[in-house]
Amino acid sequence: MKQEVIARLTRTEFIGKKIIIHQNIDSTNCEAKRQASHLEEGTVIISEVQTAGRGRLGREWASPAGKGIWQTIVLKPNLSPPKVPQLTLVAAAAVYLAVEKVDPNLGKILKIKWPNDIYLREKKAGGILTEMQVSADQVRWVVVGIGLNVNLTENDFPEDLRGKATSFLLETGRSYDRNIITAEIFNAFEPLYLEFLETGELGTSLEICRQHSAVIGRKVILSHGGSEKEAQVLDLGPQGELIIRLIEGDITSVVSGEVSLKVSDHTY
Ligand code: BT5
Question: Which residue owns the Cα nearest ligand 1 atom 28?
Fold first, then answer.
């Protein structure tokens, strides 16, 4: 990744105006959290490799060297803590717009699997991890980690992910300039983020997550604290919550952070 190339392609006011590129780090989210209190809003931590990349709930994120985008955006929004998880949908929408811009054919096969997974066709190609620090009911900072498998080949994935994970390269046969995708994510994220802060609504981000949803209309299994429930996904609600019809017929909603989700009528 090249700072000057990313900077040349970035057209934002503050997202990605300051970029810190590491060759090697444990996790860009961990580094962002360590530094967040003295970093300006919009600063992005990038690393070529992560030695301890993380997913949600302590899961591992495979982050081999030189082929993926492993980055974290530091934000200082004036938001109430319960609204912060919605930033995951803003980031997912920004990833969609960036991918669609770089390669419309890739955009056509990109699906957002609520709440935080990026799929290409039926395999996972990326994920988002949003974390925050709150004190006295105030959000001090938020870090939004974005991982995208750009130019990984089958051998770059650990064995247990082969067949489940994919990359931009594996789906299209093309390799992509990670600098361009990174800059386009910044360009897409900033207006979506400002829309969310200014209106308090997900707006465009919600429309994008709906239109490219991997789960709307599908049967899913929701797991929460050891129990599992089968449901049909009807829609995404205004706060980005999942609106579902339980197998018994009741319509209800779930917010991200509460549940994990498997699509049961498909191989997701
Ligand atoms: C996620 O978690 O999908 C969020 C991933 C966020 C990664 C970024 S990279 C930059 C920043 N720094 C970090 O340390 N993290 C963020 P979750 O929904 O919990 O999914 C984790 C699961 O995805 C794992 O348990 C594996 O099954 C699978 N997985 C791990 N690495 C993968 C990869 N490279 N590609 C596809 N699937 C993967």
Answer: 61
